[in-house]
Structure formats: C-alpha cells, structure tokens
Amino acid sequence: MTTRVLLCQRDELTPGSLKKVPNAEVGDICVYNLEGQYYATADLCTHATASLAEGDLEDGLITCPVHWGQFDVRTGEAVTFPCEKHLRTYQIIVTDKEVFADVAKEAEEALAADLA
Amino acid sequence: MTLPNEQLVSLEETRAAEAFLLREARLLDNECWEDWLATLSEAVHYWMPGIENRRREDKLGTYSAEHMALFDDGLRDLKRRVNRFNQPSAWAENPPTRNVHLISNIEVFAGDVEGEYRVHSCFVNIRSRGLDEHYQLAGRREDVLRLEAEGLKLLKRKILIPNAMLLCKNINTFL
Amino acid sequence: MDNNLIKLKPIEASPALPNLDKLCDMEAGRMSGKIFWDGDIYEQELEKIFARCWLFVAHESQIPKAGDYIATTMGEDEVLVVRQKDASIKVLINACPHRGNKVCFAEAGNARGFICNYHGWAFGTDGALRGMHESGVYEDSAFDKSQHGLREARVDSYKGLVFATFAADAPSLAEYLGPMAWYLDVILDNDEGGTEFAGGCIRSTIECNWKIAAENFVGDILHAGWTHDSAARAMLGGAVAQVSDFPESWSVNWNGHGYEFARDLVGNAAVLGESAINKYLHLQAPKAAERLGEFRSRMLGAVSSFTLFPNFSFLPGQNTMRVWQPRGPNKIELYTWVIVNKNAPQDVKDKWRRGAMMTFSPTGVFEMDDGENWEYCTKTSRGKVTRYQDLYVGLGMNTRLADTDLPGNVFKGQLNEANSRAFYQYWKDLLKAPSWADVPDRNGQLR
C-alpha cells in the first residue's frame, strides 16, 4: 500500500498560502507554501479542536485560529502557549506538476530538529 | 525593561534638588501661585499623559505624546490655570480646596547637559473639599531641573499616575 | 437589519413607575430632584432608555484596521466595538456566554479575537465561538458552538459616528436622529475629508446624575456666563460673551435630542485662546458654505452645544465629544474625546487636542466649575423633603417659532429651557412606554 497522498497541484498555492487536505486515514493534512517551498503538517491543532488551515501563516509560523498558539510548520515545533505538544509533519514529494506527502515519514527538517 | 545609565551628582546638588521639590510642594499646599510660577523655566513643558489600559504586546504602550493628556502645558497655559484660581468667580474654589502634597523617593542624577539634573520623585496628593470630599492621587514624576540665572527652575516634568480613569471629578491642583 | 445576530433574550418589560407625571411635568415646566436620586427610576432608565436607544459607541477612525477594537459601555453593559475583515463594524457584549467573565480587559487595541481567561473559550473578532480549551470534553453534551458566540447589538453609523442599540424594535438610526442629522453635519460634514478622533480617551468620574450632564449640553448655555466666568477671564482676559446680546440664536430639538446655537463662527473656539484655530475656522467657513450652505457655515465653532439623547454630547469649537456613562443614580463615568477634521493641518489638530484638555476635561478650567455644580445638583436630592420640591424648568415657555425653515422643533434664542423640557419629556415618555411602538410623537406640540 502506498503512503503517498496527493496534496495539491504545484501552481495551486501561492507563496504564503495554505490549504487543508481531507484525509480519513491519518487525519486531515495542512499544506503550506513558504516562499516556494512546500511543507505539510497535521491540520488539527495539538491543543484544542481547531483546523490550522483557518489560521494565519506568517514567517513560517502557523497561528491557530482558536487560542493563538503557534507552530513552526517546517519542524512542527510548538512555539507559543498554549501549544506544548509538537505537530506531526509529513515529508513532501514534489513532481513535475504535483505536490505529495509521504504520510509514513516526518519532514526532514523535523527529523533534523530532533524534537522528541 | 532596563533603565538607562544614571550618574549621581554631588551631595550639595542633590540637596538643592530635594529642597526645590519640597519647597514646591509647600508652595502648592499654601496656594502661593505666583511663587510657584516663579519656580518654572520660561521653556517649561509640564506633561501628564492620559493613561491607557492596553495589552502588554500593544506597541502603543501605556501613554504616548500624540494622545490626549491631562496636562500638556507650556508656561502660558500654566499661567492661565493659575489665573482661574485667582478669579473671585472661581466658584468651585470657594471655600478653598485643602491640599497636601507628599513627596518621596527623590533621586537626583546628572542631566544631558551641564547645569541640568534629571530628578525622579513620587508624590501623594490628597485634596479635600467641603465637609466630606476626599481625593487621593499618587504617581511618579520625572523632572528636568535646570540651573538658571535665578537658581534652579523646572524645565520638564512628566507625571505618571497608575489610573486609566480618574476616580474624581477633576484635578484642581498641580502635581 | 442584520439577520445573522444571535438573538438577545428580551428583558421582560417592567411596569411603568407610578407618579412620573408628578415628578416631571414639562407642560408646567417643573420637575423634582427625586429623578436624580431614586434607585428604582435608575433601574428603569437602564432598561427603558439605555437598553433601548441608539447609543454612541465609537468614531470609525478609532478602529481603522481589521481586528481593531475599543471597549466601551452601553449604559452599564460592557461592549466591544470591533472592525471586521470586510470593513464592517460589530458591537459585541464583552461577556463570555459560559460564566459571564469579561473576554477583553484592554480599552483598545488590535486582536485576532478574544479569549476568555476563565475556561479558554475563544471567539473570533466576529464574536463566533471558535473553540474551547479541552474542547473534546464538550462533545458528549451535544455542544453547538454556533449557539454560544458573543452577543451582538445592532450597529449603524452616521458620517463616522458609530451607534448601537440592543432593541430589536428600535427605529432605524436615520429615523432616530431625524432632522437633527442636518445639524450634526455642521461638525461631521463641513469638510470633504470628514472627521477623526484624536488618539486616546480621558476618563473621569463625577458624582452626579447622568441627566444633569446631558441636559447641560442639550440646551443650557445660560449657565456659561455665570458658572464659567473665571475660566473665560483666565483664557481670554475677559468675561464670556453675553449671549442675550446676540442678534439671533436658536434652540432646536427632536425626540429628546437638542442643539442650541448662535452663528458667530468662533464663539466657542475662541475660549481656547489659540489664534491658529480661529484662523482655521475663518478659512474653513467658505468651504463649509459650499457643502452646507451659508447658514450652517457660520455655526462651525459658534457658541453652541448638542446632546443626542440620551447621553452623547459635544461642544462645537472646543471640539470635545463625550459620553456620560451612567453608574448608578448619582455617579457617571465621563469619557472625553476630541474630534477634528481629518484634513486639518497637524498643528491645528494638536492645538485642538490640547485646547479641549485645557478647557473641557478633568483638568479643564471650564469643566472644573461644571463638575462641582452637577455633583451638588444631585447630592441635595438626598434630602427626603428637598427631593420632592419643585425645580423650575420653565424658561422660554411658549417661544416656539412657527415660521422658520429650520428643521426640528425650533425655539427662539439659546437662553431658553425648551430643549431641557423636550429632553425630560422624552425621558418620561420612554419610561412610560412598554415598547418603542408606544412612544408618543410629540414633535410639533412641545412648548
């Protein structure tokens, strides 16, 4: 079984924008375009029920729309109260036209940050 | 928050600045308005900004020079205020308001230029009117005193009270 | 009217108090001090006046950007006035629908939303409940977030001034202002750039009944020559102008609102003692004449004052706008702002900000004598016998001008208590009316 999930077309998200991709298997995914570089994390805030895709993306940080906690979308690190539990990240695979996530793998930045 | 470098001055200078502030309080308590005006430099800026109840992360802060104030006066304005006190028709001053100005926490530092002193102090002002009116204001002041031809004069005063709403009908004194 | 409001629960209307006619008889031009002291009357005022009328809550310039908010009160109800992403404005009750705690403790700022400190209920700037701390535990209770947002008031604005009402059955703001809007334009629309508030708000408390302050601005220039003699001499070196010497002046009212005015262009402004302001008004008058006509162009900074019923007042010329917030029968919180033309030169705006402080603020040389008067007009009513004695409100009875083109109920001269009578008549009519539909129309019949 493949762990590769289609997130969006390469030209679908402009830099600084994000979108929610429904996924019944691993939970909804949020995909972000940071100045041309794509990242993906779980869409559900680790603090309370909230879709991060409804939040504001600034300087690589996603601000949860509910209690304004923040995560670094590259590493999943919880950086601002009340978020303390880090966010699940997914490795991005970019092809000619499409952006995929490998839901079996964390992002390389997350692995490098070694948050666990 | 950190405070700027502060340089102490001589004991005599410190004592002169303290005496200036304590005498000023006595002049105000005794309604010696003309003598009080004479303690002010021609170039005085007497400022008491309105205090705003904003969140810590709000860059506008607790007060700002462009916002509304309780005093934002030069000498002309302060003379006008004294002029009202001196009118027989200043109805709300007769019978008089009785004042006590308590001054404390005096710290005297060298100013930006020779002959100027940066002086910090705290005040408690208690006013009573009629039989039962009692108003208390406390705050911090940051003054610049300048040695002029006739002695020390008040060049700048910034008055900060903790209150974002005055719990009284007016401020019919100087602080 | 908005249809996405979470409906406010209506308050069960209290029966009208007995004897209001004895306490307030404007046909006879008399009332009693009991209306300034009585706790039962005050409770009815909160219900039938402050929960019902259009109340001033903000100037649009105070909240220019999405997420900008200011906190204020409507009567004793705490509200937030918030700029929305679509540039509209919402007025939300500043109380969490869970345990009622305040959700915003700052007086102004910019926010992503409002989060209650108690249980972490989090609201968007539109008031919608977006989530709760420990949100998972609410699921078993069939909790519906859409039913638990911050409660909204109706909002409308007139040329920069934002008003709100809690009453679903209130007339539109335009109807509420009626012909008084024509007079408001003197301040709000004398320049193509419109107006703005200076930054900040000065707040103070006065131990007086709110009606005494509101009435002072609705049409009592009579007090100025006597009460403010000391301030006028201090600022100008001479007495206040004798209003009775003015060749023509008017008192105009409508549904309890009142404007009393002369056409001397700079009479009020002159007490600021700032020649730059007088000069600005002289230069502005011809421009104002193009927009408003010659008649109103002479009112810009003239000897005049205005109250919009119930508690929003201003002084043209000194350019101070204020709300007398009721805090019990014998206390108000006074919120003071300064209004200026957006296109005025910065140094003129600064002079107005400082001039209003110097004259009409808690440190203002004029207002000092007002506060004292208002407190003791209220406090003498503590006397049980004194409280029931007649107070005279009969000046200018039967001086209505029939043959005039001016809008509203027009009376001869500013030294006239016609606007005060109209104010108290409307006050009484509202206290007696079970709903807005029962408020009688007395325009054209007042004396």
TrEMBL record, chain A:
The keyword Iron is annotated on this UniProt entry: yes
Keyword Coiled coil: no
Domain (Rieske) ranges: 5-101
Membrane-spanning segments: none
Needed co-factor(s): [2Fe-2S] cluster
GO molecular function, one term: dioxygenase activity
Entries under PROSITE patterns matching the protein: RIESKE
SUPFAM superfamilies xref list: ISP domain
Keywords (A to Z) from UniProt: 2Fe-2S, Aromatic hydrocarbons catabolism, Dioxygenase, Iron, Iron-sulfur, Metal-binding, Oxidoreductase
Family under the similarity heading: Belongs to the bacterial ring-hydroxylating dioxygenase ferredoxin component family.
Name of the protein: Ethylbenzene dioxygenase ferredoxin subunit
TrEMBL record, chain B:
NCBIfam families reported for this sequence: PRK10069.1
UniProt record similarity statement: Belongs to the bacterial ring-hydroxylating dioxygenase beta subunit family.
UniProt lineage: Bacteria, Pseudomonadati, Pseudomonadota, Gammaproteobacteria, Pseudomonadales
Pfam families attached to this UniProt entry: Ring_hydroxyl_B
UniProt organism field: Pseudomonas linyingensis
Protein name: Ethylbenzene dioxygenase beta subunit
Keywords tagged on the record: Aromatic hydrocarbons catabolism, Dioxygenase, Oxidoreductase
Entry-linked CDD domains: ring_hydroxylating_dioxygenases_beta
GO biological process per UniProt: 3-phenylpropionate catabolic process
Protein origin, superkingdom: Bacteria
Gene Ontology MF terms in the entry: dioxygenase activity
TrEMBL record, chain C:
GO molecular function annotations of the record: 2 iron, 2 sulfur cluster binding; dioxygenase activity; iron ion binding
Pathway connected to this protein: Aromatic compound metabolism
Rieske domain ranges (all copies): 55-164
Segments forming a coiled coil: none
Alphabetical UniProt keywords: 2Fe-2S, Aromatic hydrocarbons catabolism, Dioxygenase, Iron, Iron-sulfur, Metal-binding, NAD, Oxidoreductase
Family: Belongs to the bacterial ring-hydroxylating dioxygenase alpha subunit family.
UniProt name for this protein: Ethylbenzene dioxygenase alpha subunit
Species: Pseudomonas linyingensis
